[in-house]
Amino acid sequence: MKYRVHQQHVKIAMVYFGIAALLGILLRSYAIFSFDFNYRHMVHAHSHIALLGWIYVALTTILHYCFVKRDTVDKKYSYIFWSTQATLIGMLFTFPFQGYALFSIIFSTLFLMVSYVYVYHFWKNIDPKYKHSKGLQCVKAALIYMIISSLGPWALGAIMNTLGPQSIWYRLAIYFYLHFQYNGWMILALVGLFLFALEQRGTIVPNKSFQRFFWMLNVGVVLTFFLSSLWIEPSALIYLLAGLGALIQLFAFLFFWEIIKNEIINLSLSILQNLFIKTVMLLVLIKIVLQLLTSLPYFARMATIYLEFTIGYLHMTFLGVISIGLFFLMDYFGLFRISKKLYRLYFLGFLITEILIFYKGFSAWQQWAVFDGYTEVLALTSLLIPISLVLLLVKNRS
């Protein structure tokens, strides 16, 4: 019964992913069809449903499935889950029409409060047999980062009322939230769940090696926040700390790969699941190389001036590293089956749109002429993503 509940919850997360992807198509079609909606408001709806609808719901469902006691009465979890859905639907029907305003802020605030309740419920009901799990140690750190990230939204209200939305602190609060969401909460949760999968198959990670990796990764997460502040052209020390953070993260993941590369065989993965892992590792490497580049003043300014580079980086992180990581976990734990053909369709859409976004950034940087029909091609190829997601949902409908 519990297994089926989690399957249904993962399907709901995938529905949010499909909605976020369709909102993305609307945004990319805005200039083509001259739609009568507020572009900025729709961006808020797209980003909130992608991060909080798709990724948050999928991750929290898998965490609950893996770590919470099987005999726990799930009424409380059910209340938490459906309360979360109420706040998400509220955001979906307010952000597109009013952006950050009274009702959308109310639903966003309620979401944060429910997420705190989830963390408390999860922590209180962890199965005692996992108390020494190294995967759980990563997951606990991830949940702490999720709470830390929420300081950004809480600060926004005070900043808007005192300094105004044009203040640098307004943008820094948003970047603080985003950074600790994807570099802290989401990526550490994925790492923790992957380690949990290895532990369930008998892999024993040496404690000394794990602690070395764990602390390197966490130091890297904290220091790389400074990358998000380089657009204000701070002192040389901030650039140095940002670069050091990216370098430590690189060493952390290379060290992690050394620890687990010979243990992956214990998971008895399918060809597709192996492909998921290799793709995620490659994208993580590209992500960290980009972080290292943007710690240099020249490239930091370039990322600020040419927004396509930042958009491409964020989409690579969310649609690539995190979403493909979630595809692996959902398929591995049997909560949602990923078809090889439909994944190829998804990845094709992801790859082509990433190339197009970075191409436009390079064109602006090098003052190349963008080819005719660029906007139409980007919108059309973006359609591959929601199409693949809808077909995956149809395939998993039973």
TrEMBL record:
Alphabetically ordered keywords of this record: Membrane, Transmembrane, Transmembrane helix
Question: What residue ranges are annotated as transmembrane?
Answer: 12-33, 45-67, 79-95, 101-120, 141-160, 180-198, 210-232, 238-260, 280-300, 312-333, 345-365, 377-394
Name by which UniProt lists this protein: Cytochrome C and Quinol oxidase polypeptide I
